[in-house]
Design goal:
By secondary structure, the chain is of the alpha+beta class. The protein has two domains: 2-176, no CATH class; 193-353, no CATH class. The chain has eight helices and 20 strands. The protein has helices spanning 38-43, 55-62, 71-80, 265-270, 283-288, 294-300, 331-342, 347-353, and strands spanning 2-3, 6-7, 85-88, 94-101, 104-111, 122-128, 142-147, 153-159, 162-167, 170-176, 193-200, 206-212, 217-222, 232-235, 239-242, 248-252, 257-264, 311-312, 318-319, 326-328. It has a five-stranded mixed beta sheet. A four-stranded mixed beta sheet has the order 3-10-9-8. A hairpin with a 3-residue loop joins strand 14 and strand 15 (239-242).
Length: 358
């Protein structure tokens, strides 16, 4: 999920000038991450860190008169309600939040992007939740800004996965997600498939990014190495739909894997946490040199001038994403596409057909 050139994060701030409840472990500061032992960490988390939001807190937030036209004021409110130590789960380093304020529901993020955080740059963005992006006749609340020391926001590197951010006398440690770069062991890759890197999506699901060397195409398979926080409903044979995320997967039983084939179109239109992993590339491992994505994106987008982080140099650094899944309006429409591919292709050509909407 992105806002302008930015994606989105998780923390629920319900306000009466104090944060009432924080949504999920995503906003937890008390959890000392180590993503491989995440389940153990949850045992020690208290209820305020496990996704509880009361209707009381939500309504209090709606009546709180937060000035949403002033991005510095909104940043001050969000930052003041962060714990001293927070965990950024999405692998493109966006700390997403949503908050009720002044009669609106606001989505937003604080981003520590790998290509600019060492220069002391932090980005902050937010917008009003709606069914779609508002047109000129329906102006929407929202801003996207960059902050540095000149704005009183000081970003300092502790190590590759820890950064401190100080603002108005408060310091917060942002722990970035060291999800690991191990390739899949349960899912079987074909001889012409290359594991590119991992992704931790803001939906809470983990993925492996795969490059097919025969068709020069990228696609996503679900990481099922450990617990998957999703349940599935089977539809028309080999298509699985996530009951929570509404992500659609092709169940490739022969190779013991689920290939992402769709995200619900309304989720993509709303730019919410269920729009798919395209904007959650393994940025931290590109930063450290453990993962290379540039050469694979150049295969899929040969006409673009791309830097090592997958940014389009000619378009002010806008990210080139691997949007290799369909935005489906209905289950029937998606199944029709998959069935069409089944009738025409096999092997790598088939996997490319079911993951190549363009």
């Amino acid at each position: 999920m992105k806002i302008l050139s930015t994606p989105i994060f998780v923390i629920i701030v319900s306000a009466s000038a104090i944060v009432a409840f924080v949504l999920g472990v995503f906003a937890s500061g008390a959890v000392d991450i180590g993503i491989n032992s995440l389940q153990n960490n949850l045992t020690n988390a208290n209820s305020s860190q496990l996704g509880f939001l009361s209707n009381e807190g939500f309504i209090n937030g709606l009546y709180y008169d937060l000035n949403l036209t002033d991005p510095k004021n909104v940043f001050r409110f969000v930052f003041s309600n962060l714990k001293d130590h927070v965990v950024v789960y999405p692998t493109e380093n966006y700390y997403y939040f949503t908050l009720p304020a002044h009669g609106k529901t606001i989505f937003g993020n604080i981003a520590l992007s790998a290509y600019q955080r060492d220069q002391g740059v932090l980005s902050f963005a937010y917008f009003e939740k709606g069914d779609n992006f508002a047109g000129p006749e329906s102006p929407s609340t929202g801003h996207s800004v960059y902050y540095t020391g000149e704005d009183g926001v000081f970003v300092k590197k502790i190590d590759d996965f820890h950064y401190s951010v100080s603002f108005e006398g408060k310091t917060v440690i942002f722990e970035l997600n060291d999800v690991g770069v191990n390739p899949p062991t349960k899912a079987i890759l074909l001889n012409d498939e290359i594991f590119v890197g991992p992704s931790f999506d803001e939906s809470g699901l983990k993925f492996f990014l795969i490059f097919n060397n025969t068709t020069k195409h990228l696609y996503w398979i679900l990481n099922e190495e450990n617990f998957v926080p999703e349940s599935f409903s089977k539809y028309n044979g080999s298509i699985l739909f996530g009951n929570r995320t509404e992500y659609a997967f092709y169940e490739d039983e022969r190779n013991n894997r689920k290939i992402l084939v769709g995200a619900k179109d309304l989720n993509v239109l709303q730019n919410n946490w269920y729009d798919g992993p395209a904007d959650q590339m393994p940025e931290n491992y590109v930063y450290s040199g453990k993962v290379e994505i540039k050469k694979y994106l150049e295969f899929t987008s040969p006409h673009l001038n791309i830097d090592k982080y997958g940014r389009n140099i000619d378009l002010k650094g806008n990210k080139v994403t691997s949007m290799s899944y369909f935005f489906y309006p209905s289950k029937e429409a998606l199944v029709s596409i998959i069935d069409s591919c089944l009738g025409q292709f096999h092997g790598s050509e088939f996997y490319t057909c079911i993951t190549k909407p363009m």
